[in-house]
Amino acid sequence: MIKVTIWNENRHEQTNPDVKEIYPGGIHNAIAGFLKEDFEVTTATLDEPEHGLTEEVLNNTDVLIWWGHLAHDDVQDEIVERVRNRVLDGMGFIPLHSAHGSKIFHVLMGTRTGELKWREADDTERLWVVDESHPIVDGLPDMIEIEKEEMYGERFGIPQPEELIFISWFSGGEVFRSGCTYKRGKGKIFYFRPGHETYPTYYQKEIQKVIRNAVKWAAPNPRSPKIHLGNVEPLEAIK
Amino acid sequence: MIKVTIWNENRHEQTNPDVKEIYPGGIHNAIAGFLKEDFEVTTATLDEPEHGLTEEVLNNTDVLIWWGHLAHDDVQDEIVERVRNRVLDGMGFIPLHSAHGSKIFHVLMGTRTGELKWREADDTERLWVVDESHPIVDGLPDMIEIEKEEMYGERFGIPQPEELIFISWFSGGEVFRSGCTYKRGKGKIFYFRPGHETYPTYYQKEIQKVIRNAVKWAAPNPRSPKIHLGNVEPLEAIK
Amino acid sequence: MIKVTIWNENRHEQTNPDVKEIYPGGIHNAIAGFLKEDFEVTTATLDEPEHGLTEEVLNNTDVLIWWGHLAHDDVQDEIVERVRNRVLDGMGFIPLHSAHGSKIFHVLMGTRTGELKWREADDTERLWVVDESHPIVDGLPDMIEIEKEEMYGERFGIPQPEELIFISWFSGGEVFRSGCTYKRGKGKIFYFRPGHETYPTYYQKEIQKVIRNAVKWAAPNPRSPKIHLGNVEPLEAIK
Amino acid sequence: MIKVTIWNENRHEQTNPDVKEIYPGGIHNAIAGFLKEDFEVTTATLDEPEHGLTEEVLNNTDVLIWWGHLAHDDVQDEIVERVRNRVLDGMGFIPLHSAHGSKIFHVLMGTRTGELKWREADDTERLWVVDESHPIVDGLPDMIEIEKEEMYGERFGIPQPEELIFISWFSGGEVFRSGCTYKRGKGKIFYFRPGHETYPTYYQKEIQKVIRNAVKWAAPNPRSPKIHLGNVEPLEAIK
Q1: Which residues of D touch A169 (CB under 8 A)?
Q2: Chain D residue with minimal CA distance to C129?
């Protein structure tokens, strides 16, 4: 059974009554709620020791989901490095929404923070499927409508996605590459845009299905090749 | 000087007075009008012998621009094959708008015709730049607004673009991958969406700039490597 | 259970005693032999009516494996079109070795036949894994050595692979992109190089594992989104 | 005229007589020697103040070439950040050979150091062109042979190249993705493998041509779009 760790900054939920009302147990528990049927799920938050991401936790994680926003800078560099190494060694990684601004996302992408447009104005969002062959869209309609969401607009400062799966349309006039896959080392990464803390997005069935599919896709190969690196002898037997 | 041939079906202009009013000399001459300052430009149309695309014309073409819509099926397979071979041998190719449904586009893409949504309802279109490093966006703003255009919507049945340069937003609620590059053999291809025949899109300065930039980008290498194919001897001198 | 159809030209096996000795039941049955434990397998060959690829057969196929060489031109265009449509509608497709020259491969790639180097001289081939995160390499070593094989050398006239999984080294001095994925419509495609008819390549365990993994990867989504195409009304409720 | 800055660690040249004999003025001056006809060239080295990469120098650089090996860790993080920001803002970047292990390469790629095979054993290297449409291969043969070089072998721990231009074959049995392009923000990146300090590789005409072509390709757009980021108002005039 795939082992999922859901990491959440968990700060808005403590300080903003509106967010607390929507996600009384925190965003991490809302996500755990719909994943625990299919996967072995644990959670971790910023204010735990080592942000809840000890070596032991990460070594027992197949796929790490990440939600952060306000406090990206409070994440210790040492933990960021630890997470990065686990991704390169095969752990799947699913940054959600404002995790585009997290240290770990930038370290893996080779980019810098804050490179997009945004607006909190109850835009309607429509996520159009552009890669219908991908396992992440299994069981979805060809468009997901979210009645109200924060807007994110291009140009989004990411490397060209290896696979572009969703493009969002916003009622205020913008578009966004909302579902993007990357590989780094043995690890698979899926960035998924929706999920501002002041909207009940993670209760929407199609959004849950995307995240569930993404966990399955991002789980590492059970028997990934052992790669030999460093100084090597010539192979013999050239005929 | 780069040699451009602009191919146009040139049928709407003969039969639809509204189109004739907008493009009295045909779409091909409207495009030639803004390209001829920078390039050596000729035009060709469907009803000429060999559709105006003789071996001699194609051998003297660095970049071929293609506009077709009503009469894709009237293009002879032999000419399609001739164009394909020239693209594989290095000629740049710029299919515009409804050329997504042309035989030559499908032959080069590996897809089939008609796979998109569309609507003629005076939608506003906004083309957002998503690849700001690309020479095709040089000198552009970060968004091109076209007041009224035909809508094209996803899922667009194309292979994943090698470079995605523009994404369109439409006021009616759809998105579209509007500027896409591909390579086939030695040839570079740029699909560009705008330009329905009932709107004066090709008179808009930013649209002209995109096409001008695309011609420069798609022009072949002057001294492309001579590739040796077929049955070969082993290379000697393995130490 | 994934339904696999293995298509083989099955001509060398009739006319060349050396090939018959290696593959007495034909290449298709050699491949069926190692796939049938995990999948529901049937075979089809060129000389059957409709080449064994009736509408019914294809509609009951999740993944089609293709081996052809001598007789690419004997495959009827109508069947090629039928196969292409099934791929675009979601059937996985795995062309092996000289299937790079088949009509169906070119129709899906947008290329033309014969664009590579080759040599029949008992080269040693080494397939190096370059994408260790991919499910197709699960359970493999980081290099597969085939003692003797036909050489294929670059430049291989394919579109840039969407994922490049293996690169081959040949003792005579060449390299080749030996494991390449593409998507076309809802269908996933994996080209895999090894398997010249005069060598017992399909009996090698690692080669069998690659093909087995590829079948799992190429199988279609069970519930792929229903895509709405054609003329559409504007979406309502733009706020 | 394109402004090129060539950065060199310049340590081997001081301490290893063999290297000094091959590159008496340092690798940076050998490269400057063949670039100065076509470009405005300056050089910078590790032991200069700020490693020779002041704000002023970088702001006057269109394309930065980077050669480093022994002393990657001696490059200050502050300068690495400065270089990264200039790349994201449009400066071209050409890391050569062992620059794959530099901090700046990893920061831009999202990877970590040392992930490849290597051997110093006078292997013969052959770089095969696999993307014949690319401006970087203009004027080249379809294969470049280097009589003796250090071997680099896969798996190379890089993100999948956006364009793969060269694949190397080594006489000892390995392959390597030797010419790879990426984009980050407005900046274009070309990694090029050859150039171990104990071989006279940078005197070879074809290698010089590759680097010259790469500088032209990596130079930024003269008038790159001004991208508006951050909090934005809705666009008006939705019809």
Answers
A1: none
A2: D155
Burial class of residue A145, CB neighbours in 10 A (0-12, 13-18, 19+):
middle
Closest CA to A137 of D175, B161, C188, C15: C188
ipTM: 0.95
Could you tell me how many residues make up chain C?
239
Q: Domain D3-112+179-218 belongs to what topology?
A: Rossmann fold (3.40.50)
Q: Is the peptide bond before D112 cis (omega within 30 degrees of 0)?
A: no
Q: How far apart are the first and last CA of chain C?
A: 46
Tokens representing residue B205 in the block: 């300065």
CA D210 to chain CA centroid, nearest Å: 11
Q: Do B184 and B90 touch, CB atoms closer than 8 A? A: no
Q: Residue D228's pLDDT is what?
A: 84
**DSSP conformation class of A136:** G
SS in 3 state form for C56-118?
Answer: HHHHCCCEEEEECCCCHHHCCHHHHHHHHHHHHCCCEEEEEHHHHHCHHHHHHHCCCCCCCEE
Q: How would you class C196 by CB atoms within 10 Å of its CB: exposed for 0-12, middle for 13-18, buried for 19 or more?
A: buried
Shortest Cα–Cα distance, C8 to chain B (Å): 22
Query: Could you give the CA distance from residue A4 to residue A219 in angstroms, rounded to a whole number?
Result: 9
Cβ of C187 and A221 within 8 Å?
A: no
Partner-chain contact A111 D119, CB within 8 Å? no
The encoded tokens of residue D30 equal: 């050998």
Question: Which of C63, C122, C221, C226 would you mutate first to test chain A, the one with the most A CBs within 10 A?
Answer: C221
Contact between C239 and A124 using a beta-carbon 8 Å cutoff: yes
Given a cut of 50, whether residue B238 has pLDDT beyond it is no
Q: Do C117 and B230 touch (CB under 8 A)?
A: yes
pLDDT more than 90, % of chain A: 91
Q: What are the sequence ranges of the domains in chain A? A: 3-111+179-218
Q: Give the pLDDT score at A133.
A: 95
Closest by CA position to C176, among listed C194, C157, C152: C152
Residue B202: pLDDT over 90? yes
**Beta-carbon contacts of residue D215 (< 8 Å; ≥ 6 apart):** D2, D4, D35, D38, D39, D63, D65, D92, D94
Q: Does the beta-carbon distance from B168 to A156 stay under 8 Å?
A: no
**Number of Cβ atoms within 10 Å of the Cβ of D85:** 14
Q: How many contacts (CB atoms, under 8 Å) link C and D?
A: 57
What single DSSP character describes residue D62?
Answer: S
| pLDDT digits 0-9 by tens, D105-122 | 999 999 987 799 999 999
Q: Which residue has the tokens 């570079």?
A: B188
Strand C163-170 and strand C175-184: the pairing is: antiparallel
Size of chain A, expressed as the number of residues it contains? 239
Please, which residues bridge with residue A66 across strands?
A7, A95
* CATH architecture label of A3-111+179-218: 3-Layer(aba) Sandwich (3.40)
Q: Kindly list the residues of chain B whose beta carbon comes within 8 Å of any beta carbon in chain D.
A: 90, 122-124, 126, 129, 131-135, 137-142, 162-163, 171, 183, 185-188, 220-228, 235, 237-239
Mutate to test the interface with A, among D85, D111, D186, D236 (most CBs of A within 10 A): D111
Nearest to A133 by CA among A219, A205, A213: A213
User: Which of these, A46, A97, A113, lies nearest to A76 by C-alpha position?
Assistant: A46
Beta bridge partners of A177: A167
What is the per-residue pLDDT for B133? 95
Torsion of CA B85, C108, C232, A162, to 10 degrees: -100
Dmax (CA) for chain A in angstroms is 73
Domain B3-218 has CATH 1.10.150.130: no
